[in-house]
Amino acid sequence: MTEYTEIQKTMLRVAAAQRVQNAEVKVSGKRVQIPLDGRTVEVVYYKRKRERQSGPDTKAPLIIGLHGGGCLMGGGALNDAMWLDVSRALDADVVSVDYRMAPAYHFPDPVEDVIDVSTWLIGHSVDFGFAPSKVALMGCSSGGNLAASAAILANRRGGKIWRSQILVYPYLDMQTDPVHKGANAQEKEMFELFNSLYIDAAHSADPLVSPAFAGREDLKGLPDTALIIAGRDILRHEDAAYGAMLRQAGVRVYEMFAGNMPHAYFEHAYRPVEELFFSSTMEKKLRTSGAMVGARVEMLRFLRSIASYILW
Length: 312
Hints:
CATH topology: Rossmann fold
Shape: globular
Oligomer: single chain
Order of helices and strands: HEEEHEHHEHEHHEHEHHHH
Strand order of the largest sheet: 1-2-4-3-5-6-7-8
């Protein structure tokens, strides 16, 4: 029987409570049940608020959003304000995917969900009213891992599903000990729980688990990439290295460095400080001072500034 630390027990309790909340919370978008082979995946679909009146293609782009939480925590309906802001900033429809998560599901289930949901949506683009050639993946933290992994898997299968990928402080290396990345004791316990519930340790260096270990052949031909790196994040080095790997493989990369921000700052900037269960005192101060909200705005401005390259 697995022995969990007190922090890990708390994480499991919070994750269970979030699953209930995810099913019940009211959302601004529309909950849609997507029928896939042997399963149904729920998404929340947010239509953009304004329509383009002119131009060669007035249909909206679509951003397929993947929440963070270590493939254990969070949910497709728990980032309502964030996805609304992304939709407004990028003049795009957004769909937030409630992909399968641990402890009930493991690798590669969430990665397959990303590919299958994307393929289904593109096949029904007329019904939803978006442009099927202008679809982007956007993932935060572990959601960024899933986006990067799905792009590699689709590449191996010979298909290019997405116009671009937006990787927000993605978790790209599940093999390296978190302590060697600079993790404190709590961060170490958190990442160890995420990893142990999502993958078998023998797969930790598989590029579909840890895109940081992808070779050039896996990276060649990947979608244009927007990469957000947080300067106080223990993942910043693997993120910067991945950006360099993509460029060396010929992928166009647009990079933003949020120098004073911790991991998960974009998501946390939408949450009240009392819901930042595992954040440090420093992170909570950044949230209450308004600095984190300011960085959130800057990230959206950055994405808006490159929207014509990665979406339109």
